[in-house]
Amino acid sequence: MDACWIDISTPQGASFSGYLSLPPTGSGPGIVLLQEIWGVNQHIRAVADQYALAGYVVLAPDVFWRQQPRVDLTYDAAGSARAFELYGQVDSAQAAQDTASALATLRALPQVSGKVATLGYCLGGQLAYRGGALGHADAIVCYYGGGIDQHLDLADQITQPILFHYAGRDAHITQDMVQKVKTRFAARPNARFYDYADCEHGFNCWGRPMYQQKASALAMAHTLEFLSQHL
């Protein structure tokens, strides 16, 4: 893959890094890809490359840069313990602003020849939602975004197309929480929901025991269809 780390500037003059993966053609629409709590690790970089191979310019920003730059954790007990420790230290509102900064950086790249979306998993799903609203993304994709039900005040700001993926057996995002989001967006033609009844939280991550190949492939198909329609 044609990939490297680049700098992302904040409005306050600070900078942090993001993993940039380019498509084989060298240019295309853009995706800001938001990590899970294990950082921009091998899995997230592989997902960025996966979407780059589908023709997108993908930037995965380092969400935990204020706590520990370029976190790259594994899914074993030690890695997960550190991941949850870092997650507890993150100011999610600040991270949403950083997502908006990543959107601005991505849009300014000469390789980006079209619209730009946010796409995220777990914590990244919430940041795709909040940062996509703040940064006026052209489309938003949220995979089992934790905490979105606590930020439904942003729903009126989200007029762009938005896609939600939810797992039916998610122990972290209950069906009551999912229903709150569905109810808030029920009358909104820009919102689309897909449910994966027999799946658990994190079903898209092939490095974790809850990975479900069929659901992951189906969700990616839905996502690629959605992105092809709106970017």
Describe the structure.
The protein is of the alpha/beta class and 231 residues long. The chain has one domain (2-230): 3-Layer(aba) Sandwich (Rossmann fold), CATH 3.40.50.1820. The protein contains 6 helices and 8 strands; from the N terminus they run E-E-E-H-E-H-H-E-H-E-E-H-E-H. Strands 1-2-4-3-5-6-7-8 form an 8-stranded mixed beta sheet, sandwiched between helices. Helix 3 packs across helix 4. The longest helix is centred in the C-terminal third of the chain and has 18 residues, at 213-230.
What is the H/E order? EEEHEHHEHEEHEH
Report low-confidence residues grouped into runs of 5 or more. none
By CATH, the superfamily comes out as Alpha/Beta hydrolase fold, catalytic domain
Count of spatially separate domains:
1
Mean pLDDT value: 97
State the CATH topology: Rossmann fold
Number of strands: 8
Q: Report the top-level CATH class.
A: Alpha Beta
| Cα Rg | 16 Å
**How many helices?**
6
- The residue fraction in helices comes out at 25-40%
